[in-house]
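pinging the channel bc i need a second pair of eyes. not urgent but kinda urgent?? the chain im working w is below, pasted from the shared doc
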Amino acid sequence: PGSRGAERSTPRPPVRSQFARTHAMAAPGPRLPSPKLGRRSMDDSGIAKRPPGGEEGRLGWPSLGGLREQLLPAAGEPLGRRHSEPHLGSDVIHKCFEHRPIPKPDDGELKRGLGPVELTLLGVGACIGAGIFVLTGVEARVAGPSVGVAFCIAAASSVFNGLCYAELSSRLPISGSAYLYAYCMFGELPAMIVVVNQLLDYHIGAATIARSLVAYIGQAVVSSGVPLHPCIIHCEPFESAPWLSISIGAPAVLLVLTTVVAGGAKMSAGVTSFMSAVKLAIVVFVIAVGVRLVNVDLWQPFFPYGMGATLQAAATLNYAFIGYDVIANAAEETKNPQRDIPVSIVTSLAICAVLYLFVCMVLCGMQSYVDMDPAAPMTSAFAQRDMVWVASTINVGAFFGMTTGLLAGLYGQSRIYFALARDQLAPGSLKRPALSSAWCGCLAASLAALIDVRQLASLLNIGVLLAYGTTAASVLKINNKRRCDEIRSGVFFGSENFYLLAVVLLTVSFSHGALLSPLLPWLSAAALAGIMGWVCVSREYSDCTGGAFKCPGLPLTPMIALATDTYLATKLSVHAWMRLGVTTVLVTVVIGVVTFIDLGRREDRICETVRAAAKAAGTKPGLCNKC
């Protein structure tokens, strides 16, 4: 390849859509001069290999359409369909679903400095909050002493999702998490739908935890005899506007924690690790004290309401393990992502499951499940035995739990915005981690200051489950040996997308089919098992390349994860689904309009992002010569 100056001396052809360029290559007649683009060999995962002789792409990373460009027939090869003229509408649709190039292990722009211990404590800090001292008692009233079994079932279902995140975050080790995976496997529009809903959950969740934390602190201060103005915690100054709820303390807490996150990954991980270690020590201490007070007779009957109640509690307790995906968002700042991220995800889930189980068994052995205080079961159990000092220790642990949850959430949000800015889908200023952290903190602080976001709890979790389900589906897509042929042919029936859609629809039918017929859930479960069995027998999946972690049990593991996420999503309120529908429509309209206006410049723009990332990493992945 020549220099950039030499390239500019050659007249550039007019910008045309990729659809038009492809047909121009196949059509006879003279062509404008262009660099020679040879077909590239691919490995089984669909990732292009380096050309023989060490020749690399001219500018490193591929363009936004790089993956599709590799999969289209080369010049002179027959095309499946012929059209006399391309249509603008088809160009817009094609661009909306155009794939992001798949990153290489050494790509990235952030400094890699996090190790497995910091990542594990980050995941534990995100998963275990104050809920370990509250949620256990709430669900014990539903399932009785078998709530420990419910936690084990919830942990097992979470492991399936965790293994999917472990493979993709080690295989695509840059920031972005579910947004990045959706972009690479499904295209820009699905990725934006996923990330907008995920960020909504993050922002509302951060504001909600901040309000709860301030209320917790305020209650402790008032109990000590120090008066506080009501608006420091929350107040409603105008009766005509009940939706307006002022809180001075919540945004103050968020801004302090935002300063920590803006200080960099090392500082944020250090503070989170310290607080998580203190929190774990308190939980272990409470278990050690409480185990001596256990009366095993209180464990009988173990299944007072039957196995159905235990499974119902397990569906709710699955949310107790949400948060480990923040480890995937730290992929670009991990020293050895291929090894450290899978180990940290699995270890953090295991630690959380063991602690939840022991807390449940101790609590149910100290007090009958029918007498538990749903607001503060663990604290009240010790207070009834005149062990107020243990109750005070639990309150300290709850404070650290909420704080680590906020820190981990703010960190994860900021890295998603960083990834969006790098892909030119958010303002370029957010490409600086400090500014993206400040943006997340200010947005959550604004919500916490003016709105009682706890009333929006019914809208939450749909975005997180959508992100988890998309990640599970992406594992199947990236390992499908026939992915290139399916993209090239455009066939839907019998493709990976067909089977993924079948799993989702059959799971929905299993969840709500009883409304139509008592037999429909059973038929749906049988069909779902049949689909999974057929995929295991008839489909071929490749091994991970480059020493990345391989999701065990492929393809069954990601399909179970997808079915679990879909089932949990069907149990959410209708308000959550209405929110998903509204955001999907709005994102589709915005992306469609932007694509229509900027159709000719999108490819050049993403190339600039790719060049910057490759230059910072000092690598040339060579996935696409065009960049």
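so The CA atoms of residues 122 and 279 lie 12 Å apart. and The two ends are 12 Å apart (CA to CA). — does that match what u expected or am i reading it wrong
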